[in-house]
Design brief:
- This protein has two domains: 12-240, TIM Barrel; 244-271.
- 41% of the residues lie in helices and 13% in strands.
- The protein has helices at residues 12-21, 33-41, 53-56, 68-81, 100-113, 128-136, 152-155, 165-181, 193-202, 223-226, 244-260, and strands at residues 25-29, 46-49, 86-90, 118-120, 141-146, 185-189, 207-210, 218-221.
- Strands 1-2-3-4-5-6-7-8 form an eight-stranded parallel barrel, surrounded by seven helices.
- Helix 2 crosses helix 4 and helix 8 packs parallel to helix 9 (193-202).
- Bound molecules: 3-methyl-2-oxobutanoic acid (KIV).
- Residues 29, 48, 50-52, 90, 144, 187, 189, 210, 220, 222 line the site of 3-methyl-2-oxobutanoic acid.
């Protein structure tokens, strides 16, 4: 039996209903107007203006350097493209960890200047006070547990998280805390699928996985990875739907050759 329901505009309430009726939630990252327009037309449910923009758009090695101003500029361009999807924007590193007032101010800037629909931040118990304060301003919050790339220097590696009992227990506890605090959904990144499934079954809010198996309520991928714009990054969980790096390179090589040989422009391509 199909659980799919045609929806004109995705809201946080609609993604929660999707979990209730068993319809899986699709989510991809987007950072600019042109891509966001295509993804929205393709009926993606949620677009995440992820701080992975730091890597794929700005060329940094980690997500730490991207600023709140950068995130707002990316988010505003995505918002201008979107008619249907819910647009969630990452609070970047350093914009919310100081205290809950700083977190609220950063979230308000994203909602006001980019006209976003919701924000996402990383962490469990440590950020619950900030989440509650952001929610008091009527701003929907998505949590992010498991591998949290803003803590890469604490973890030391991008390996699978919560394989050991102690970390798995803390993750389950954090997921329940985020639900109680009022998060409308949680991203679980790179954890064993059995644990992710247990979390999804233990909370009422949608759990969206990346490298967390199929027992969760939805999936998210970094768009540059699934479109094959990057060649270097190929973790086990990634499915590539295109090889855009090779396709774009080939197109540009043909263009260069056509320009050099004066094949372009031809007679029909000039005034
Ligand atoms: O920034 C990002 O792209 C993310 C996804 C990996 C979920 O947070």
């Amino acid at each position: 039996m199909s659980t799919y329901k045609e929806v004109k505009k995705i809201t946080t309430h609609i993604v929660q209903e999707m979990k209730l009726r068993g319809e899986k939630i699709s989510m991809l990252t987007a950072y600019d107007y042109s891509m966001a327009r295509i993804f929205d037309d393709a009926k993606i449910d949620i677009l995440l203006v992820g701080d992975s923009a730091s890597n794929v758009m700005h060329g940094y090695e980690t997500t730490l350097p991207i600023t709140l101003d950068h995130m707002i500029a990316h988010a505003a361009s995505v918002i201008r493209a979107v008619k249907r999807a819910l647009v969630v924007v990452d609070l970047p590193f350093g914009s919310y960890q100081g205290n809950s007032k700083e977190a609220l101010n950063s979230a308000i800037r994203i909602m006001k200047e980019a006209e976003a629909h919701a924000i996402k931040l990383e962490g469990g118990e440590e950020v619950v006070e900030s989440i509650k304060r952001i929610l008091t301003a009527g701003i929907p919050v998505m949590g992010h547990l498991g591998l949290t790339p803003q803590s890469i220097y604490k973890f030391g590696t991008y390996e699978v998280r919560a394989k050991e009992e102690e970390e798995a227990t803390k993750l389950m506890h954090d997921a329940r805390l985020l639900e109680e605090a009022g998060c409308f959904a949680i991203v679980l990144e790179k954890i064993p699928s059995s644990l992710a499934t247990r979390v999804a079954q233990s909370v009422k809010i949608p759990i969206i996985g990346i490298g967390a198996g199929s027992g969760v309520d939805g999936q998210v991928l970094v768009s540059h990875d699934m479109l094959g714009i990057n060649k270097e990054f190929s973790p086990k969980f990634l499915r590539r739907y295109l090889s855009l790096y090779d396709e774009i390179k080939d197109a540009v090589e043909r263009y260069v050759s056509d320009v050099k040989s004066v094949d372009f422009p031809n007679e029909k391509e000039q005034y």
